Amino acid sequence: ATASDSRATDAVRAVCEEVGSVSHIIFEMRFNPNIFSPGINFPPSEEAATKLQERLLREAAAFIITHQIPEFLQFCLQSNEAPMDGASLKQALHLRGINLRYLGHVVKAISQSEHKERLRHILRTAIGDIFIRSTRRVFNNFLQGVDVPNLAAAVSHFLGCLLVPHFSASPVGEETKKKSRRR
């Protein structure tokens, strides 16, 4: 090995260590998904590693918001292959390294875009996906406390609350007055 090879190897190792790479030979980033989770405490001996993970995660999120999402919207404007449903939206976002937790940022970016009219279908799809994902989470939490024999009734009740329009009840006398005025 030559001196320049040795310096290059040392440089790669230094950069890998700086960015918290799992390997000292190649860049391999793994983020701790629990780094910002409330209630999870890391041992004091891991404080430096925890701070590094927090910094890297913040930098990655900033990169996604400032570069990847605008690039994704440009792709949607210029391509005939723009996503048309939730599944294709998910696939298109993941291909660009954008996790679905950034859907709110996608909606915000579209809402602030000068091309929001041309991106209306993406906006509707993203909002629908946020709604479905949120509903699924609430629904799963709701079902956790239901016994198996009551499962059908619970599902029916949940869907009724979700899908049936709710009107404000008017007093009994008011309803008959409204009918009599229509005659």
UniProtKB/TrEMBL annotation:
Biological process (GO), any one = intracellular distribution of mitochondria
A single MF term (Gene Ontology): mRNA binding
Looking up Pfam families in the UniProt record yields:
eIF3_p135 (PF12807)
Looking at the record, the residues that make up the CLU central domain are 81-181
* Superkingdom of origin: Eukaryota
- Quote a single Gene Ontology cellular component term: cytoplasm
> What is the protein name for this chain?
CLU central domain-containing protein
Q: Which organism is it from?
A: Nothobranchius kadleci (African annual killifish)
